[in-house]
Write a structure and sequence with these properties.
35% strand; 4-stranded antiparallel sheet; mainly beta; 4 strands
Length: 81
């Protein structure tokens, strides 16, 4: 992972009272997005060496070249919010 691709990090948290897992984290800027522009991201688990390190790293997703095969059946469609 190139450091210039990393834009943020997530830490996995647990709310035992509600039996729920959630994430907290940061996004680093500037992202220089125009109004209405979407930034595609990917999130990978982090190989932690210390407890204080994030559980996941967020990276800018690089566009695939035309004809490039997918490595999985994962759909990267982003819903409109």
């Amino acid at each position: 992972m190139a450091d210039n691709d990393k834009i943020g990090a997530l830490w996995e948290k647990s709310d035992q009272a509600r039996d729920n897992t959630y994430f907290t984290g940061t996004i680093e800027g500037p992202l220089n997005l125009a109004e209405g522009e979407k930034l595609r991201i990917v999130c990978f688990s982090n190989k932690k060496t210390k407890d204080t390190q994030p559980d996941y790293n967020i990276l800018k997703s690089k566009p695939r070249e035309v004809g490039q095969a997918r490595k999985s059946d994962f759909s990267d469609d982003i819903p409109n919010f």
